Amino acid sequence: MASRKAGRKWPALAALGFLLLAGPALTAEQAFRIDPPAQDLPAAEMQSASIVLAGGCFWGVQGVFQHVKGVTSAVSGYAGGNARTASYTLVSTGQTEHAEAVEVTYDPRQISLGRILQIFFSVAHDPTQLMRQGPDVGPQYRSAIFPANEAQRKVVAAYIAQLDASGAYRKPVATKVEALNGFFPAEDYHQDYMTRNPRQPYIVINDAPKVDNLSKLFSDLYREKPVLVFAGG
Predict the structure, then answer these.
(1) Which alpha helices (DSSP H) does the chain contain, by range?
(2) Does residue 223 form part of some domain?
(3) Which domain covers residue 190, as residue numbers?
(4) Domain for residue 24, yes or no?
(5) 218 domain-assigned
(6) Rounded to 10 degrees, what is the CA torsion of 115, 133, 223, 65?
(7) Residue range 186-232, pLDDT digits in tens
(8) What is the per-residue pLDDT across 25-35, written as a single tens digit (0 to 9) for each?
(9) Between 58-65 and 208-217, two packed helices, what is the crossing angle to 10 degrees?
(10) What sign has the CA pseudo-torsion 160, 213, 229, 199?
(11) How many CA atoms lie within 13 A of 105 on its CB side?
């Protein structure tokens, strides 16, 4: 479903009517704080690390992590397919193997991989839905993590197992761990979308609540001013 992208803005009443007719599954997630991973990577001396996260529309995932302390960059893009098909027009067909994803680059001296994952599973998306987030349906909106290396993969796999064993959710975690064959930044108009379009109905209904949940559930990691891809938003 490509109902809210390509720079188009929903008329507010039409968007609200659609969501009401579609039912409560299409409203913003009711987030809650979950335990951090029992297994994490040790604090590193290196200044930068990154991991690619896919959890529905990249506007919201990017918007959340741009407000996280220790994150130095959050770039919307595509992962799972190849360079030839890494464009919004093609990815929107759901036939490219790509997922809308965000490359989160962070300073391991300030925030650990485990805390990044805790936020991802708590407020950035609903990890119990595999091929759907809110009003968006299809493999391009799947829940997936693309670790940068084997150490990250082990932490991610262990955390998914931990969450399932703890019964944190009413349903099993559907998030898949996939090989990172490349990350391809999305078109410029998709970058910093939440900051540049705060009153767009899709953002107001689906994504702004995620940032609000971040500020409430992770006040120690929340920063008011987002780190943007383009200076000035």
Answers:
(1) 12-22, 58-65, 88-91, 113-119, 150-166, 193-196, 201-202, 208-217
(2) no
(3) 38-211
(4) no
(5) no
(6) 60
(7) 999 999 999 999 999 999 999 999 999 999 999 999 999 999 999 87
(8) 334 556 888 99
(9) 30
(10) positive
(11) 12
Contacts of 57 (CB under 8 A, 6+ apart): 4, 5, 100, 133, 134, 136, 141, 202, 206, 207
Q: Known catalytic residue: 57?
A: yes
- Residues contacting 45, CB < 8 A, separation 6+: 109
The domain total for the chain is 1
In this predicted structure, which of 19-23, 101-105, 158-162 has the lowest mean pLDDT?
A: 19-23
Catalytic option among 57, 61, 99, 194:
57
CATH for 74: 3.30.1060.10
Q: Rounded CA gap, 226 and 2, in Å?
A: 26
pLDDT tens digit string along 42-81? 887 678 999 999 999 999 999 999 999 999 999 999 999 9
Question: Is 5 contained in some domain?
Answer: no
